[in-house]
Amino acid sequence: MKIGIVCYPTYGGSGVVATELGIQLAKKGHEIHFITYSQPVRLDILEPNIFYHEVNVHDYPLFEYQPYELALSSKMVDTVLTEGIELLHVHYAIPHAYAAYMAKKILLEKGKYLPVVTTLHGTDITLVGKNPSYKPAATFSINKSDVVTSVSESLKKDTLSSFVIKNDIKVIPNFIDTDLYQMNDGCNRAQMAPNNERIVIHISNMRKLKRIPDVISVFHRIQQEEESVLLMLGDGPERERAEQQARELGIANKVKFLGKTSEVRRLLCMSDLFLLTSENESFGLVALEAMAAKVPVISSNAGGIPEVNIHGVTGYTAAPGEVEEMAVLALSLLQDDEKLAQFKQQAFEHAKEFSIEKIVPMYEAAYHKALAAIH
Asked: FRET partner for 373 with CA separation of 20 to 30 A, picked from 28, 116, 330, 350?
């Protein structure tokens, strides 16, 4: 198949999943064309069967906000016609499915029917789509897609309860290449824990939704009973507040803010426990990455997280904001070597349920269903 993929090319979960999906599809012989405003961060365009088409948004003084959707739709039409693309897979209802519908109508005028598969990732539903300014467009875009997928059962339920959806929504969870996280070298714990402390880790874009103060508070309670260090990976608006909180609690020397780093897998492989305290997550891809590296997860039970982190098996869950409970659950693992080792292995075994080999064929089936609509 010749497939066009439209996504945000940034470090966010949806962009990572879309890019990795394209890479895996290309390895299986499909011809993949990425259509976006900049090259996705994990994309190697030198790989066979992978192509990148940049959307150029020109700066017109007339517009206070540049019309990206128009430029994207036009680029979709041009790419489909010049490259012979058979199907578009767009990640996010707004603006991508909306732009795809405009492209679809333009192509119909030229005698070509273009199937569209839309994947819902979360923010397009929980934040953008529910905005009264966008809700009619989001509803329309979802209903006009040939096939709609969602990354979790939780997000599917949220979508169906928030919008009047006539389309079926197929749950296809996010996936992971577990082989990438089995590091036999470069996993030097002494770099981060010179006194053989336990290593606790958190990774996020440090937005308010992630409840970063709770991460610091849970760790503050942990280190009172178990010698530990906390690795904070990522950056965002809540970082400065978290650094100040660590100083006020007197644990600044135990909390290492490492910013955005390309060494995520190496840092995960030396970690004992992952903290995810989010107010909501449609899936929790970062928790799955931790589990693939054999790191149990202490998380909130919000959104789709419990579909990934199984309470009492791969780690533990608690209600958002339950800092004391999360700390107690964390200590129950960190203070019991045998139990921790068991949970590490269980986390890894569950991560394999989200392997590339199991999930990518589900997307291929969705593509065939969308293409069948032509006939």
From this structure: 28
- CB–CB of 175/154 below 8 Å? no
Strand, coil or helix: what is 327? helix
**Is pLDDT of 14 > 80?**
no
- Report for 30-44, 93-107, 155-169, 215-229: range of highest mean pLDDT: 215-229
Using pLDDT thresholds of 50, 70 and 90, give the confidence band for residue 12. low
How far, in Å, CA of 256 to CA of 267, rounded?
12
Beta strands in the chain (DSSP E): 2-6, 31-36, 50-54, 87-91, 116-120, 147-150, 169-171, 198-203, 228-233, 255-259, 273-276, 297-300, 315-318
Q: Among candidates 281, 276, 285, 288, which has minimal Cα distance to 347?
A: 288
pLDDT at 148: 96
Alpha-carbon gap, residue 228 to 127, rounded angstroms: 36
Q: Residue 65: pLDDT above 70?
A: no
| 3-state DSSP assignment of residue 48 | coil
Own/partner contacts of 251-256, CB < 8 Å, gap of 24 or more, are 251/216, 251/219, 251/220, 251/223, 254/219, 254/223, 254/228, 254/229, 254/230, 255/216, 255/219, 255/229, 255/230, 256/192, 256/229, 256/230, 256/231, 256/232
Q: Which residue has the tokens 């020109």?
A: 58
For 242-270, the DSSP string reads: HHHHHHHTT-GGGEEEEES-S-HHHHHHT
Examine the pLDDT at 129 and tell me if it is beyond 70: no
* Cα dihedral sign, 294-296-299-304: positive
- Alpha-helical (H) ranges within 40-134 are 68-83, 98-109, 123
pLDDT of residue 126: 62
Edge-first strand listing for the sheet containing 87-91: 50-54, 31-36, 2-6, 87-91, 116-120, 147-150, 169-171
- Residue 312 carries which side chain, given as an amino acid letter? G
Closest CA to 350 of 200, 203, 176: 176
Query: Residue 61: its pLDDT value, please?
Result: 64
